[in-house]
Amino acid sequence: MSAADSFVADIRADSNRDGVVDGNDVGGRIEKGKWTAEYGAVLLPNIGDVARRCPSSSSQVSDDELAACHDAADDVARAPDYLAPMVTMPFGRAANGATGRVAAVGVGAEKIRIFVKRAEAWVMLEPGAALTESELRHGATLGIDSRDVVRDRAVWDGSVTVRFTVQRGDRTVTDEVALRMAPVVLHHHNQSVQTLLVSESGDDESHARFVGELASAARASGLNAPLVRLNTTDTWGQDFLEFGYVSMPGRGGRSISMRIAIRSPQPEREGGRAVFDLRGPGVGAIQLGGVGSDHVDGFGNVETIPPHTHAGREFPAGRVIIGTGNVDNPAATSVELRKFFNAQQMQPPVTLDASWLIVGHVDEFVQFLPTTSGRGWRPAVTDPRRGLQVLRDQQRAGHGSAPAFSRPGVSDRTIDDILADQKFVADNERAAQKIEANVARLHQEAGLKPEEFVRIPGLFKGGDIPEAPDALTSFYPGAVNGVLMNATNYISARQWGPIVDGRDVFEAAVTEAYLSAGVTVHYVDEWEALHLGGGEIHCGTNVMRQLGSPPVR
């Protein structure tokens, strides 16, 4: 009797992660029924919208109905390109009189869809559905996907077991293969911008002017794609939307990837509905939980440390940074964001202290810049001490009487006035101490030495909020709160600092700091559109970046 005629169940997936299912997925070090960092098949959440059949954010459907519409919402294989491959091995003559079934079992099984290819069509195997005798005899071609991403590790960690059961008379044989959901991975700044997004301006003329300047700066940065307008006038496009991606290995060494547009856990934020308009071919959209619209849950409070190794641990996709605290609640932390990123088991969150800021977002003081040396990137932070030094240098050079702001109508205060303001100086020393404490935290968590940080001049001021008199916000528009377009181009807010000898000396210092890391700054006037509202360019935009390779956990 040949192997194909023996009564032995054998199901296989892409356990060696080379994009195909074959004999190399069994034997040797591979135990196909287990999933490890070295081997085990990966599947995707098939939640795009290839036919663009889902309702828009302008429709009257509820948030839950918007989120529920996607390609895996029913039992149709609308996007078979995103099915992970599986096969059952032939039974040959042993299939005579036998019945075979393939099903996901255990926790999370209800989220899994399994299809069998019959002729040229993919047919979903309903629970209890049997393979045909021909499929048992010759082997079945299968595909598997998920209806959702992993959201809470305590509920489901993304592990999937698929069981192949064959019964003939009183004899039953089974085999199992282990898979795991691809983690949702956030982009980092070593991945270049491919699409720049900004909210609609409505009747806000200042925002329309900002968008025009932003488009010009994007072109000067080398981006040829037009700006994409989010279907909302919620100015803060960074806060209600974050982009990640999921990937699995494909044939020939290529990756099969899907972008995931993530709506922030701020369900009362109406603008967040616009996230679902981005869903389409190759782009899924999800809605996180949460309540209200707390600042701590906004995605301006999330950054990503690029890939690195620290203390013997590799972080191939980097780590997520989440800020804690804000003007409303200094002890606040985003339970939903931490739960979601921990569930991905790929970019374990690092928490930084943002409680000293009015908005309380990490993008107000930290970012990461690509470099051609070392680990390939450098951290950067706002440096209030350097900001004060810029003004003091001008004062010592005899320019203390120069207006502190070059933007007309902002203030009549001079450099001398600013530096004589003891509270202002003390506030910036406190900000410097808070930032240095975060630098120390990043040294502890990621091995980033203080001398590695690019120091970007910036100043802070009290926000005159009675209930939080010590909370701070940007004095000049925060330069760190911008958009890194690629390895050498950065879009930042025009600084409107003192003019000495025909140039903005604060802006010149910012330019010099970025040039020290090989980055050219393109300045955009966002004073009225964003700065006066408490945010800057990063807060008021979003980006789709270059997709990365499939990471493993």
Automatic annotation (TrEMBL):
Residues 172-546 form the Protein-arginine deiminase C-terminal domain. InterPro entries: PAD, PAD_C, PAD_central_sf. It comes from the Bacteria. PANTHER family: PEPTIDYLARGININE DEIMINASE, PROTEIN-ARGININE DEIMINASE. This is Protein-arginine deiminase domain-containing protein. It comes from Nocardia suismassiliense. The lineage of its organism: Bacteria, Bacillati, Actinomycetota, Actinomycetes, Mycobacteriales.
